[in-house]
Amino acid sequence: MVARPQAPQGRTARPTAAQKRIIDQWLQIPTDYAERNLGANFLHPLLNELGVPVNHRSNEVRISKPGESGLIPDLLIYQHLDEPPALAIELKRRIPLLFNTPEQDFATVCQNEPLKLYRRAVGYEETGENGIRQYLDPALVKPECLAPYGLVFNGDFFQLWRRVDGLVFPFTPIQKVTKANLPQLMQQIAYCLHKPPGAMVVSAWNQKGGVAKTTNTLNIGAVLALEGKRVLLIDLDPQNDLTHGLGLSPLPFPDYLASVSEKVQSRETEAAKAILDTAIQSKQFPTSDKRSYSLSLLSASRLALEAFRDHPNVKPVPIFMQLIELLKPDFDYILIDTSPTPDALTYSMLYACDAVLTPVDFGGKALRHGLHLHQSVLPEIRQRRSQRQPLHSGPWNLGLVYSNCPAEKMGKVLETAIAQEFKKYQFAGKLYETKLRSFAQVQAADFKQVPVICWQDSPVTKLYNDLVKEVFLSHNFMDG
Predict the structure, then answer these.
(1) Which has fewest Cβ within 10 Å: 149, 231, 361, 414?
(2) Which strand ranges, in their side-by-side order, compose the sheet holding 333-337?
(3) Which residues contact 457 (CB under 8 A, 6 or more apart)?
(4) What SS3 state is found at 461?
(5) CATH number for the domain that contains residue 63
């Protein structure tokens, strides 16, 4: 058994004896090396050094459900033999081109080199091959063979992927293996094998107001909770609309942010977690079809949020990221609501998120803000974050969803204008089929201070059910 690791933070630690042996092994591998040899003469020795027993590794097992085409990953790694695998691995051969590519160009070359080794390992559609994308698909894979993590590797490229329900997204950027970073890459594998997958952290955000960010956060969380997921909603908006939308108040816990900040800064993590547990409120909601679900909420008053944001001795972004890490083990999903203002609270959310869903309406302002977020803001934050900590290297783009739209369909003129805007920005991301339209039932739910999905026969409820299935529960692959 491997010692339970912390998330790797950088390349400063000296290699251990085991890591030095693997570095020496890697240095001996030819730059043109067959996939099978790479597995036998490097990957398996690496797993040996990580303490993974041989009987916890399964080679070339058919994992597809009955009736599906054959899915056979190169390797499945088990933490416990009576549970599904922890990690699925897809190997590809090593080639001199990738070995000789500088680190700064490496990800681009991986995406474009003529043999498409990286893209084949991932399983991009144009390659016609199965890869990690398919091996983590709940619709294709038997439940007992479905892993939460995947790895693509060829001796030079190394990338971990993560699955949450149907959603599959990068857990690290594409990394080039080097003598310097190989110990860190080993730690990343060990982390995936031993760290229980925590909550998926998501926000529905756009700098343009009026696109129902809070309403979406509330009802997406409610649908997930009704599906049996453990959901925490975090209200970082000083207006506290999310909190009031649940019929709750932030006032009972006005000082928890200050207390948690103090404990986090002094590295008293257990004390910080105890304070957070006290601050979390929970509420049960009945539905019209006689079911019920529970939502948890972490909220703070306007004064507490503004003090956290503006305190000269507090750095909100790193403190909030650590706060989220403390909460992840207790939930399946954490959904964060902030104001449209790009202030320190908003950046705390963006740096802590695994992914951001961008709501836009049929108007030009919301669409332009959404495309700018998608194309520029999130990739820049992801780049900065991955330099400090390659694991959890979000926020990834979940895509765009039409929200708060009129009930009638868009006309031809508007449809053409929107298409031109997408073309102008060279948008290559996801635009979801589900359109969240404006119905009076949403306002009625707001007055009653409950999620609209409490009315199960409402057309709005169907839209939110469809969206949650499309984004989270059905297979949804994202990489940008």
Answers:
(1) 414
(2) 281-286, 292-299, 231-235, 333-337, 200-204, 355-360, 396-405, 431-437
(3) 288, 289
(4) helix
(5) 3.90.1570
Does 408 fall in a domain? yes
* Packed helices 302-310 and 256-265: angle between N→C axes, nearest 10 degrees: 30
Check whether residue 233 and residue 183 sit in a common domain.
Answer: no
CATH of the domain at 423: 3.40.50.300
Q: How distant, in Å, are the alpha carbons of 25, 111, 166, 258, 421 from that of 426?
A: 44, 18, 27, 43, 9
pLDDT at 480: 78
What digits encode the pLDDT tens for the residues 13-46?
Answer: 789 999 999 999 999 999 999 999 999 999 999 9
**Number of domains composing the chain:** 2
SS3 at position 390: coil
Nearest in space to 148 (alpha carbons), one of 190, 194, 88, 201: 88
Q: Is the pTM of this model over 0.70?
A: yes
Domain extent at residue 156: 17-194
DSSP symbols for 32-90: SB-HHHHIIIIIHHHHHHTT--GGGEEES---BPTTSPP---SEEE-SSTTS--SEEEE
C-alpha Rg value of the chain to the nearest Å? 23
